[in-house]
């Protein structure tokens, strides 16, 4: 029997119960060409199911990688054929506004091909990755290599964590939730220290 999924994972339980591997493939594929659906979340949930013996983790991983690569390549095709005009016209319907797209494209341009791999782990860039690669004119074969590498690493990370969690997901989620506030506070303090040091450094540079 599949373990009860806590928090945001719970909403995906009916989908996994009814459609299993198909749900994993479709949701991840759709997310990867720009539609804001919970692709990463369903991967983790499916891996938890696999850890509890309800799904096969190898099949989950293979389907997730193929769906991720396919979705990003659809996005690449959209960007390559439709260009910025298409993104500016229709992007707002999937929360990809011109301003958000410009920031993502600037980041993509600065960091080159390696960002295709890293983008898989960054919310927002994961969904727009293929589209930006297409609009920026990145060669398809180069995109395919980096994109596939990113998909394998991304699936490997979350599938492994979900699978190892398995039936213990409820207990682990409870412990994580208990300490979340302290993590947020620590992150806020670290950010404040970073900003203060940055402003102090700028002030010193101006004085000299």
Question: So what's the overall shape?
Answer: globular
Largest sheet: none
Category by helix and strand content: mainly alpha
Number of H/I helices:
9
Give the amount of beta strand, in percent. Answer: under 5%
Give the helix level as a range of percent: over 70%
How widely separated are the two ends? Answer: 68 Å
Radius of gyration: 20 Å
Using DSSP, what is the number of strands?
0
Q: Write the element-wise H/E pattern from the N-terminal end onward.
A: HHHHHHHHH
Mean pLDDT comes to: 77
User: Which ranges are low-confidence, i.e. pLDDT below 50, for 5 or more consecutive residues?
Assistant: 175-180
Describe the protein in words.
By secondary structure, the chain is mainly alpha-helical. Helices cover 77% and strands 0% of the residues. The chain has helices at 13-19, 21-31, 39-51, 57-90, 98-111, 114-118, 125-135, 140-165, 169-207. Helix 3 crosses helix 8. The longest helix has 39 residues, at 169-207.
Using brief descriptors, characterize the structure shown.
single chain; 208 residues; mainly alpha; 77% helix
In short:
The protein has 208 residues and is an all-alpha fold. The chain has helices spanning 13-19, 21-31, 39-51, 57-90, 98-111, 114-118, 125-135, 140-165, 169-207. It is globular and about 65 Å long.
């Amino acid at each position: 029997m599949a373990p009860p999924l806590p928090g945001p994972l719970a909403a995906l339980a009916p989908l996994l119960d009814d459609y299993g591997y198909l749900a994993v493939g479709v949701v991840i594929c759709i997310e990867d060409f720009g539609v804001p659906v919970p692709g990463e979340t369903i991967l983790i949930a499916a891996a938890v199911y696999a850890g509890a013996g309800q799904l096969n983790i190898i099949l989950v991983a293979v389907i997730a990688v193929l769906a991720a690569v396919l979705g990003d390549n659809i996005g690449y095709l959209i960007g390559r054929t439709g260009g910025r005009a298409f993104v500016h016209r229709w992007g707002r319907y999937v929360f990809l506004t011109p301003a958000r797209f410009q920031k993502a494209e600037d980041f993509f341009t600065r960091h080159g091909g390696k960002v295709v791999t890293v983008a898989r782990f960054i919310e927002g860039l994961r969904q727009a990755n293929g589209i930006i690669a297409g609009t920026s004119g990145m060669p398809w074969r180069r995109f395919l290599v980096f994109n596939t590498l990113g998909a394998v690493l991304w699936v490997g990370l979350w599938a492994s964590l979900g699978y190892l969690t398995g039936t213990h997901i409820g207990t682990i989620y409870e412990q994580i939730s208990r300490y979340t506030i302290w993590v947020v506070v620590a992150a806020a303090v670290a950010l404040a220290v970073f900003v203060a040091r940055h402003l102090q450094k700028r002030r010193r540079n101006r004085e000299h």
